[in-house]
Amino acid sequence: MEFTIDRTAVVANAVRTMLDSIDEQRAAEGYIHLFGVAKCCVLLAKKRGLDCELAYIMGLLHDYSYYLTGDREEHARKSGDMILPLLAKTELFVICEMGTIAKAIASHSDKNKTDGNPYDELLKDGDVLDRMLMSPGSEQKEIHKARAEKLTQELF
Ligand SMILES: [Fe+2]
Asked: Quick one: which of 15, 19, 104, 110 has the fewest CB in 10 Å?
């Protein structure tokens, strides 16, 4: 009998463990935002012909450092660094998959740059799309506006 390991479930469990260890209010926001961005990334990956599993996982982990520490300063780069040992410990990912995930996470705050690879752009867009869907009536941050307009054209 062959077993298939659900890598998204393994990573989701690690994220739940982290969120369950922090301040209750930040954890509540984290559950909504991290799982929301993960789903937005899958939607965009399907549309763009990218790997939905990697998309989901990068969405789940993208703000890991911020939620763990409460510190937003350089949280993208710090999250990219933090999630490498976490993924390596699962022994479920090859080096290039971990590199793709970590690189997209490390650059996801650069919303005004559009020269990243498709996964870098996917994660930035997934982060913005989650904000668009969570606060449909409110104005987007200045740095997100161009991306939000492009997403509206792509999806709606
Ligand atoms: Fe985010």
From this structure: 110
CA angle 16, 22, 25 (to 5 degrees): 95
Are 35 and 2 contacting, i.e. CB atoms less than 8 angstroms apart? no
Which pTM value belongs to this model?
0.96
Dist. CA 151 → ligand 1 center (Å): 16
Q: Is residue 1 part of a domain?
A: no
Q: What is the mean pLDDT of the chain?
A: 96
Kindly report the CATH number assigned to the domain that includes residue 140: 1.10.3210.10
Ligand 1 mean position to 50 CA, how many Å? 20
CA distance 156 to 154: 6
- The rounded Å distance from CA 2 to ligand 1 centre is 36
Residue 2 domain-assigned? no
Evaluate whether residue 36 is within a structural domain.
Answer: yes
From the CA of 62, how far away is ligand 1's center (Å)? 6
Name the residue with tokens 């998204």. 8
Q: In total, how many domains does the chain have?
A: 1
Which domain range does residue 142 map to?
Answer: 7-155
